[in-house]
Design goal:
1 helix; about 160 residues; signal; four-stranded antiparallel sheet; 11 strands; elongated; about 5% helix; Immunoglobulin-like; membrane; mainly beta; seven-stranded mixed sheet
Length: about 160
């Protein structure tokens, strides 16, 4: 398949409004630089964000903010990451890295970004961190310490 030429990671990103994020594109083919596009579901079109050439010079699309999007290159032109800051729910969409090859564009597999005002809470079990401090042993009755385990609010500070 031609997707193997451009590998994007991760496939899905969930981030919070006002935070920042990054996604990676690995290029296994000769290229003159990497294009980043966003597919907008609501507007049903591809939006050109930024092109980064081999010299690391970036060319931005119309109305694309330079302090919001930046491309960083690593490992001798074989890997590019797109950094997005000041995230807003309107930044949600699927981001594609792309190279042009003999007058056609090859697209990566895409990274789906969702920006939410509040992130979903983790399941209840992970909310009470297990204390690394030694817990005083209650030797009198094993039952007392067992109920202490089941009800975290009884744990000693």
């Amino acid at each position: 398949g031609f997707y193997t030429l451009l590998t994007q990671t991760p496939e899905h990103l969930l981030t919070q409004t006002n935070s920042k994020t990054e996604m990676l594109c690995e290029v296994k083919k000769e290229h003159t630089g990497v294009y980043w596009y966003r597919w907008s579901q609501e507007r049903q079109h591809f939006e050109f964000l930024v092109f980064s050439n081999m010299l690391g010079k970036a060319t931005y699309g119309t109305n694309v903010s330079q302090d919001k999007f930046s491309v960083h290159e690593a490992r001798a032109h074989s890997s590019y990451s797109l950094h997005i800051s000041h995230l807003h729910p309107s930044d949600s969409g699927t981001y594609y890295c792309s190279i042009s090859q003999s007058s056609q564009l090859l697209l990566g597999s895409g990274t789906q970004l969702r920006v939410a005002d509040a992130l979903p809470l983790p399941p209840k079990t992970t909310q009470t961190p297990v204390s690394k401090k030694p817990v005083p042993r209650i030797t009198k009755s094993k039952a007392a310490s067992r109920t202490g385990m089941a009800q975290p609010q009884l744990r000693l500070p």
